[in-house]
Design goal:
GO molecular function: kynurenine-oxoglutarate transaminase activity; pyridoxal phosphate binding
Strand content: 5-15%
CATH architecture of the largest domain: 3-Layer(aba) Sandwich
Number of strands: 13
Bound molecules: 4'-deoxy-4'-aminopyridoxal-5'-phosphate, glutamine
Number of domains: 2
Distance between the termini: 45 Å
Cofactor: pyridoxal 5'-phosphate
Protein name: Pyridoxal phosphate-dependent aminotransferase
Family: Belongs to the class-I pyridoxal-phosphate-dependent aminotransferase family.
Structural class: alpha/beta
Radius of gyration: 20 Å
Helix content: 40-55%
Low-confidence stretches: none
Keywords: Aminotransferase, Pyridoxal phosphate, Transferase
């Protein structure tokens, strides 16, 4: 058959996790925590199942969860979305990203993405018959070049996608960046998709500049988050999208025929958790900051050079003191020969910067896992 996605193979996360398993490597590749979800969340989930919340949920999401998200959003970002018309619960951020693109992007239109970008963006754009227009982030700092974004806009541009804290780099957009985005979009009909799945994992006293804080952005944005990141349960696949009523209505047309609804019991569990234990998301930054600091200190005892990590749970390292291999080959070698798995950066780019020698390590891991990785990395 003639493939609809000629550029797509198996994702780098799957490839590297399989290789890690085959070779018994410490897997710091695919981003997922290796520690348990909060006990209270598991108890709530069990209670929800026993209480009979096992059939289809409301298409838009369990009302108690949408209400809890609305209240949490007001508490954290100072603005309360309407739980009925502006919040939709999805099967992970991946579903939300797919739905948002398919809801508003027509065949032949263009979507601007900032490279390196998360791997599910472009295939969703391609399937919509649209074109991803890649604008490079600064190769050293991963800061956006807003003039380059301006220059990439054409009459066909339908959407701009941003991601902060950023996967894979951990870079964060500042207040000045968000104002630039607002200025760029002002007077256009371009829709913003803001991928904020790492919204609560921010460090060094910084503030996450959600698009929801900016009226001129949120009135034209899909803002997407994921409970997988916030509650250490990437396998539960529950996320959500906040968008103005007209955009949410279009979004729901796709959502209802894509999955119809999301796993019902988990929605009840998240509703309780968000409402009863705000400390969890409030302290998540400090929780991961301690892991980041410890891991970085350990990395300084290896030949890998850690880059700054303002947010998220990934540490980029420069391996040029160890090897001349390209990043994909290096990750293969590191797994097979040295027993540690990382993720190369080049699959996140349309055109990777020449000679870039960076790979991504996930530090959402127990100390024992990170210690085992460091012991091996010290032998490079
Ligand atoms: N966006 C980014 C930037 C991510 O890192 C991830 C998951 N790692 C997702 C979206 C997808 O989130 P989910 O697992 O909830 O589908
Ligand atoms: N988002 C995770 C990461 O960046 C991977 C998710 C997946 O495997 N699809 O590592």
């Amino acid at each position: 058959i003639e493939t609809k996605l000629p550029k797509v193979g198996t994702t780098i996360f799957t490839v590297m996790s399989q290789l890690a398993a085959e070779h018994g490597a410490v897997n710091l590749g695919q981003g997922f925590p290796d520690f348990p979800v909060p006990g209270r969340l598991v108890e709530s989930l069990e209670r929800a199942m026993r209480a009979g919340h096992n059939q289809y949920a409301m298409m838009t999401g369990v009302p108690a969860l949408r209400q809890a998200i609305a209240e949490k959003t007001e508490r954290v970002y100072g603005w309360k979305p309407n739980a009925d018309s502006e919040i939709t619960v999805t099967s992970g951020a991946t579903e939300a990203i797919f739905d948002a693109i398919h809801a508003v992007v027509h065949a032949g239109e263009e979507v601007i993405v900032l490279d390196p970008c998360y791997d599910c963006y472009e295939p969703a754009i391609d399937l919509a018959g649209a074109k991803a227009v890649h604008v490079a982030l600064d190769p050293a700092t991963f800061a956006p070049d807003w003039n380059a974004v301006r220059a990439a806009i054409t009459p066909k541009t339908r959407m701009l996608m941003i991601n902060s804290p950023h996967n894979p780099s951990g870079a964060m957009l500042s207040d000045a960046d968000m104002r630039e985005v607002a200025a760029i979009l002002d007077g256009t009909d371009i829709i913003l998709l803001s991928d904020e799945v790492y919204e609560h994992i921010v460090f060094d006293g910084a503030r996450h500049e959600s698009a929801l804080r900016y009226p001129e952005l949120r009135e034209r944005a899909f803002v997407i988050s994921s409970f997988g990141k916030t509650y250490h349960c990437t396998g539960w696949k529950v996320g959500y999208c906040i968008a103005p009523p007209a955009l949410s209505a279009e979004f729901r047309k796709v959502h209802q025929y894509n999955v119809f609804c999301t796993f019902n019991p988990a929605q009840h569990a998240f509703a309780e958790m968000i409402r009863d234990e705000p400390e969890h998301y409030e302290q998540l930054g400090a929780f991961y900051e301690a892991k980041r600091d410890r891991f970085r200190e350990q990395l300084l005892t290896t030949k890998l050079k850690p880059l700054p990590v303002p947010g998220g749970y990934f540490q980029l390292v420069d391996y040029s003191a160890v090897s001349d291999l390209d990043d994909v080959e290096f990750c293969r070698w590191l797994t097979v020969e040295k027993g540690v798995t990382a993720i190369p950066l080049s699959p996140f780019y349309e055109t990777p910067p020449a000679g870039q020698r960076l790979v991504r390590l996930c530090f959402a891991k127990n100390e024992a896992t990170l210690d085992a990785a460091i012991e091996r990395l010290q032998k490079l």
